[in-house]
């Protein structure tokens, strides 16, 4: 909870909260208001993380559980004044199970997009690399990927969005996962910017600060500006050391110890 104030002190104007459900909505709303922060993204309920759940939207047999979770999304979205929610697909099998999961995913996303849209909340889906997993010894929910995750590539996500056919379902592109799985990052952004509502960043490899590794983020940020992107970019990475000391990369954007 102390991170809200720390983020504001560092110059951030907005935050994400991956899994807010351990706190009452009013308890999360208070530090947002106190620090003049905007909540721009949180995840829909993903099931039981400790038992291996990584979302419910594409998991056959759990359709009702997924749909029953959506009113809870509305409760938190209203309290936090957040208009974008990440609907996580989950972990599924292969072969026929994969085909069945895609049908379930499309149906559930169509329902969620319509349900959330009536309340002014956009749904986003994020391709996540399925080869890596939880970071050993890391904080809760800290991952370098999600083993067996259903949605992995931008082309797959685009196909799903087209199949759903809703004007309230968008792409959430994490540059770390895109680079891990696909490369060709700049062209992927160009190809998908029209349906992209949210970006996240981290260095590759390791998922550390964005100035560590093989991605030239100043180039990527300039590309976002060139393409007219006006949404948010979330800093979803694991600092090598102290968070504030690792914000040197962000000073040119008005964020960091000297901001």
Q: What features would you describe in this structure?
A:
With 259 residues, this protein is an alpha/beta fold. It has a single domain, classed as Divalent-metal-dependent TIM barrel enzymes (TIM Barrel). Helix content is 36%, strand content 13%. The chain has helices at 3-9, 25-34, 63-80, 96-117, 154-164, 175-181, 185-192, 217-226; strands at residues 14-17, 38-43, 84-86, 122-125, 169-174, 196-201, 232-235. A seven-stranded parallel β-sheet has the order 1-2-3-4-5-6-7. Helix 4 (96-117) crosses helix 5 (154-164). The protein is globular and about 50 Å long. 37% of the residues are buried. The model has no long low-confidence stretch (mean pLDDT 92).
What is the structure about, briefly put?
This protein is of the alpha/beta class.
Could you give me the name of the CATH homologous superfamily?
Answer: Divalent-metal-dependent TIM barrel enzymes
Looking at the structure, what is the overall shape? globular
CATH architecture: Alpha-Beta Barrel
The secondary-structure class comes to alpha/beta
Q: What is the average per-residue confidence, as pLDDT, rounded to a whole number?
A: 92
- Pattern of helices and strands: HEHEHEHEHEHHEHE
How many E strands? 7
Mind telling me the CATH class? Alpha Beta
Largest sheet: 7 strands, parallel
CATH topology: TIM Barrel
Number of domains: 1
Low-confidence stretches: none
The helicity comes to: 25-40%
| % residues in beta strands | 5-15%
Distance between the termini: 22 Å
Radius of gyration: 18 Å
